[in-house]
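Hi support team,

I've been running sequence recovery on a batch of backbones for a student project. Most finish fine, but this one hangs at about 90% for roughly twenty minutes before it completes. I'm not sure whether the input is malformed or the queue is just slow. I've pasted the C-alpha cells below so you can try to reproduce it. Let me know if you need the job ID as well.

Thanks,
M.K.
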C-alpha cells in the first residue's frame, strides 16, 4: 500500500453499526443492503492499496459480476480521495476515460462519497469529471449525507448551503437513495419519510429511491407494486432512477433479475427498453446557459415516462 493510501484508509472505514443499521424492512432486503455496503468498502480499500489501473481492474474482477458495480463505486471513493491529496494526477478522470468507463455511473457516485469523507465541496471537483455524468458525484455526496448523517439530513432535512440551486437537486437524488437504505427498502416507511420533506423536494427524493431500488434490489414484485402505488404523482421521477440503474447495468454487462422486475413494475417496460430510453436521451443534447446538459438529459427521460404513464392512465379509464 502507498504511503498516501495508508494515511487515508482509516478515514474510509465503516463500522459494523453503520453497515447494518437499516430500518425494519424484511431480512432479505437488510442482508442485501449489508452486502452492498461491505462491497463498496472493500472496493475502496483495494484502491487505496494500489491505484495502478491494471492491478486495480484485476482486483475489481475478483468481485462477482452482479456486485462488481459496488466495488467500482468503492474505487471511485479511493481515487477521488487520492486526487484530493495529490491533485495534479487526476486519477478519477483517467480511470473514467479508461478501464472504468463501463462503470462510469458507479465511479462518479463513489467519487462523491470520497469527496464527502474528505470534506471537499463537490461542485469544485466537477471540472475533473465527465462533463455530463460528473454531476452523479453530487448524488454520491448526498447519499453520504443521508446515510452517515441521517439525523441532520433526513430527519432535520438540512441542505448544504455551499451547493448551487441545481446541485441541491442532485444532492436530493442521493438523499433519496440513502432513504432506500436506511429504512430497509420498506415502501410505507419510504413514503412517510419523503412526505415529511417539503413538496418541492419530493420528486427528486423519489428519483433517488428509483436508482437505489433498480440497482440494489432486495424486494419482491409485491413490494415493488406497493412502491409504485405510494409514489403517487412522483412515479415518473421514480421511473427515471430505475431506468438509469438499468442503463448502468447494461453498460457494465451485469444484468440482474431484480433490475428487470423493477423496470417492469416501475417503468412499465423491460430493462432493455428502459436502458434504450436513457441512451436516446444522450443524443443531440443542446447547450443552455440556464441548464446543465445533465439536467436536460434527465428531463428527457422523465418526459418519456410521464407520457407513458399518462397513456396507461387513459387506457385504464376507457370503458371496457
Amino acid at each position: 500500500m502507498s504511503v498516501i493510501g495508508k494515511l487515508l484508509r482509516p478515514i474510509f472505514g465503516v463500522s459494523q453499526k453503520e453497515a447494518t443499521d437499516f430500518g425494519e424492512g424484511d431480512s432479505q432486503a437488510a442482508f442485501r443492503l449489508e452486502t452492498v455496503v461491505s462491497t463498496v468498502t472493500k472496493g475502496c480499500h483495494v484502491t487505496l492499496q494500489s491505484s495502478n489501473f491494471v492491478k486495480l481492474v484485476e482486483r475489481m474482477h475478483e468481485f462477482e459480476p452482479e456486485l462488481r458495480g459496488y466495488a467500482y463505486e468503492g474505487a471511485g471513493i479511493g481515487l477521488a480521495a487520492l486526487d484530493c491529496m495529490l491533485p495534479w494526477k487526476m486519477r478519477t478522470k483517467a480511470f473514467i476515460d479508461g478501464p472504468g468507463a463501463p462503470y462510469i455511473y458507479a465511479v462518479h457516485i463513489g467519487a462523491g462519497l470520497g469527496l464527502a469523507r474528505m470534506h471537499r465541496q463537490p461542485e469544485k471537483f466537477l471540472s475533473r469529471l465527465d462533463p455530463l455524468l460528473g454531476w452523479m458525484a453530487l448524488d454520491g455526496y448526498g447519499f453520504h449525507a443521508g446515510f452517515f448523517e441521517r439525523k441532520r439530513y433526513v430527519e432535520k432535512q438540512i441542505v448544504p448551503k455551499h451547493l448551487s440551486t441545481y446541485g441541491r437537486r442532485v444532492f436530493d437524488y442521493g438523499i433519496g437513495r440513502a432513504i432506500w437504505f436506511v429504512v430497509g427498502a420498506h415502501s410505507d416507511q419510504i413514503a412517510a419519510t419523503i412526505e415529511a420533506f417539503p413538496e418541492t423536494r419530493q420528486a427528486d427524493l423519489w428519483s433517488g429511491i428509483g436508482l437505489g431500488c433498480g440497482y440494489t434490489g432486495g424486494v419482491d414484485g409485491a413490494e415493488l407494486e406497493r412502491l409504485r402505488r405510494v409514489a403517487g404523482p412522483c412515479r415518473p421521477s421514480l421511473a427515471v432512477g430505475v431506468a438509469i440503474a438499468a442503463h448502468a447495468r447494461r453498460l457494465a454487462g451485469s444484468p440482474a433479475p431484480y433490475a428487470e422486475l423493477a423496470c417492469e413494475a416501475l417503468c412499465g417496460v423491460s430493462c432493455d427498453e428502459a436502458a434504450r430510453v436513457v441512451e436516446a436521451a444522450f443524443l443531440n443534447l443542446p447547450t443552455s446557459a440556464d441548464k446543465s446538459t445533465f439536467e436536460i438529459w434527465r428531463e428527457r427521460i422523465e418526459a418519456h415516462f410521464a407520457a407513458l404513464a399518462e397513456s396507461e392512465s387513459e387506457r385504464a379509464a376507457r370503458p371496457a
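--
Follow-up from support: It reproduced on our side and the slowdown came from queue contention, not your input. Confidence is low (pLDDT under 50) at residues 3-12, 14-20. No action needed from you.
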